[in-house]
Design brief:
Elements: E1 3-4, H1 20-32, E2 36-38, E3 46-52, H2 58-70, E4 75-79, H3 86-94, E5 96-99, H4 107-116, E6 121-125, H5 140-148, E7 152-158, E8 163-170, H6 176-187
Parallel strand pairs: 2-8, 3-6, 3-7, 4-5, 4-6
Antiparallel strand pairs: 1-2, 7-8
Length: about 200
């Protein structure tokens, strides 16, 4: 994949936020630490971005920094306990959507409906659903994409190459098993912060 700069043009259809001082600080920090970009974000106003592997709290920090550095407006799920006190305003401004895991029934259907009613809405999800080693990954993102009739793009945080990789764009079919295999295939090429906690095939 060809490396890109943080000055690259974000596709026209993608919902945007102003980069501003905070975004430029994120650009500086990522550059200083040697982090880069590869590939291209899909030119879609509505989409599900799956971000993996997820093995460390640093994944969220890096993901937010890339979002601000590029000036992309995303929504994402987060534990409802993070939406209390002074953190609530920050989380909501970043695009956070509170979810109480014990009452998560209907989240997929509600999110699909919300996307379907929006002109621009990109949702970022961690398909593993946990930092621990787990297989199979959660497939809720495929149901969201299928119900809202939108594509899914794979995004990888590669710690070995210090790179955020925009990967393949999937048009979700009724064959969810085949769609998941395409997802696993891409993430087998991405090095997690803790590789031993990433499982992309059975009996691994």
């Amino acid at each position: 994949m060809m490396m890109q700069s943080f000055q690259q043009q974000v596709p026209a259809a993608v919902p945007k936020r102003q980069v501003g001082v905070v975004g430029r600080c994120c650009q500086w920090w990522l550059n200083k630490r040697g982090w880069s970009l590869a590939g291209n974000m899909a030119n879609e106003p509505r989409m599900v971005l799956i971000v993996a592997p997820h093995t460390s709290n640093w994944d969220f920090v890096l993901g937010v920094m890339y979002m601000l550095a590029l000036g992309i407006r995303l929504s994402f799920f987060a534990k409802h306990t993070l939406f209390k006190g002074p953190l609530e305003g920050i989380m909501r401004r970043l695009g956070g959507l509170p979810v109480e895991r014990s009452r998560a029934h209907g989240v997929v259907e509600n999110m699909a409906a919300r996307i379907g009613q929006s002109e621009q809405l990109i949702v970022a999800l961690a398909p593993e659903g946990t930092r621990k080693a787990v297989y199979p990954w959660k497939s809720g993102f495929l149901y969201i994409a299928q119900n809202a009739r939108i594509p899914v793009q794979c995004v990888g945080l590669d710690y070995q190459q210090k790179c955020l990789k925009f990967g393949p764009v999937l048009s979700v079919s009724n064959d969810l098993t085949a769609s998941m295999e395409s997802v696993y295939g891409f993430y087998r090429t991405v090095s997690a912060k803790y590789p031993q906690q990433t499982i992309t095939e059975p009996n691994a």
